[in-house]
Write a structure and sequence with these properties.
CATH superfamily: Vaccinia Virus protein VP39
Radius of gyration: 16 Å
Number of strands: 7
Order of helices and strands: HHHHEHEHEEHEEEH
Shape: globular
Structural class: alpha/beta
Oligomer: single chain
Mean pLDDT: 96
CATH architecture: 3-Layer(aba) Sandwich
CATH topology: Rossmann fold
CATH class: Alpha Beta
Distance between the termini: 34 Å
Bound molecules: S-adenosylmethionine
Number of domains: 1
Largest sheet: 5 strands, parallel
Strand content: 15-25%
Length: 200
């Protein structure tokens, strides 16, 4: 598949759902066969949250987006946030998340990120290792929506925070016709964040 065809697949999303419905609903499965990075990834995520302590509105509510089986909810958000909602599109992955985390997660939302509507605000919106399946326009629209409707704002200027952890490519975006993903460059991410109104 050429890049234009992969962009088309990202737009419809159906093939990406099918892909994830066919991946093992395990830590190794959501990490694409690299389960050994789970430990260090979790550790750095916990450090990121600690670093945000001076800015984040509070530790009441979190939304784990593109959550797969809830690896991050289980290892990073659980025990830190009182209420955790989990957003995932794949039936296979979210079914496993429900089995593992039914006592931890407040609401499981089976949807694509681009179809999600905010019903409440969050202190933390976590997005990791799935934005390579979301096209630029959909990501931009989600970030604008999150900024306006999805983040808690306190009178002392503390606000909810969006945590994004993604792979970046060094020069050109990298397309994969195995999982229909596109790895962005850092500059591409920064440009979308700027367009969404964030200062970077
Ligand atoms: C590589 S896994 C990462 C899961 C989790 N974020 C983690 O780090 O353990 C990617 C997950 O994102 C989900 N996903 C991909 N595109 C999505 C979209 N547009 N909306 C919601 N979920 C999506 C897939 O179904 C899959 O479960």
């Amino acid at each position: 598949m050429n890049p234009a065809e992969i962009e088309q697949v990202m737009l419809s999303g159906d093939k990406i759902i099918e892909y994830w419905d066919n991946q093992p609903a395990t830590i190794d499965g959501v990490l694409g066969g690299y389960q050994e990075i789970d430990e260090v990834d979790v550790q750095t995520s916990c450090e990121m949250l600690e670093m945000a302590r001076g800015h984040i509105s509070s530790f009441k509510s979190a939304l784990d987006c593109g959550a797969g089986i809830g690896r991050i909810t289980n290892s990073v958000l659980k025990g830190r946030f009182e209420n955790i909602d989990l957003l995932e599109q794949s039936t296979v992955q979210i079914t496993e998340a429900k089995r593992r985390l039914k006592k931890v997660v407040r609401t499981f939302v089976q949807t694509r990120l681009q179809d999600f509507t905010f019903k409440t605000t969050y202190d933390c919106i976590w997005m990791q290792w799935f934005l390579m399946y979301v096209n630029d326009q959909d990501l931009l629209e989600f970030l604008v929506k999150a900024r306006n409707l999805g983040l808690r704002k306190l009178s002392n200027r503390r606000t909810g925070c969006i945590f994004i952890k993604e792979n970046v490519s060094t020069s050109l975006p990298i397309y994969s016709d195995e999982d229909y993903s596109r790895t962005r460059t850092n500059e591409q991410f920064l440009s979308i964040f700027r367009q969404a109104g964030f200062i970077v």
